[in-house]
Amino acid sequence: MTGIIFRYLFAEVGRTWLVVAGVLVFLTLGLGFARFIADAAAGELPVNTVLELALFKLVENLEIVLPVSMLLGVLLTLGRLCRDNEMAALFAGGAGLREVYTPFIVVALLVATLAGTMSIVAAPHAERALARVGAEGANTVIQTLEPGRFRTFLDGDAVFYAEKRDSDDNLRDVFIRVLRESSAGKATQTIVTAERARQQIDDDTGAVTLILDNGWRYEGNPGDAAYRVIQFGEHGVQLAPPTGKASDDVDAQSTLLLMTSDDPEAASEWQKRVSVPLSVLILTLIALPLGRVPPRAGRYGRVIAGVLVYVIYINAVHLAGVAIEDGAIPAPIGLWWVHLIALAIAIGMIAREQGVFARRRSVAGASA
User: What superkingdom does the record give (predicted)?
Assistant: First the structure.
């Protein structure tokens, strides 16, 4: 009998969690995809990197998706069981809270393992990959320039146009116009025309330079005494500054490296990564008593309360992490006190559901 109950509830909560997680993943991926599509449309990224960037961003966002999806999965499953009187039937058949809650906790352990893998191992790799692809996107600026179409930069102060692209991926018959404000407050323009534009990347610094070949440079406004006309064989314009080879961002560093560092920011980061699987388990323990609703209540009656609990809990973790970075909370204390408080609340709610406090009050009354 116990095995039948376990398999049934395990399948119910697992199926609900998969649906909720799938919807959240789809929304997260869609938002990231739309953001990078907009950057590509603005010429800030090559189009062929959009999907890759969106997938890497999704890996980072799973540390938010997995805890809240587990919370909602438990609440929705319990809400349906209570609404359809299946929970009452289980208890009437002799099942206790242990038999009912065990499948939920097993699913939570599986999701927590996945969440820990994502936040502790995969997310730093995704962050480094995002930085790498972004740098490669900056290093392929010339590929984002479409021949036969005017492009504006610098809030409209710069205009770029190329007639065509040759077989070597270089642009031909280039026109560039840049407006600048002189020291006297007067707007002046610089016009550059060239037969060819090609890209040059410094292997050491990552700086990107647009090299213009065989052209003319016109500086100033026609009719001014300072108007200059310069013919050049080769002229360089820096498009992207040096990027460096390594990132010092703690988000991109491995968890083991952060744990060996004495930097408060590093301590805050690795503790937040470990907090993701812990939050999955603690939120599940909170959702188990929270999701029990009267049979006539709506299936979604406790969802809003659950989301509110999630927001308070996650914000408390975030604020504690900021306090660690600022030195207001010592790193050994860290975020653990937030999890202990949430765990104590969960245990108290489960104990109250089992009638522990009521039995203690009745025993105390009898002894009096």
Answer: Bacteria
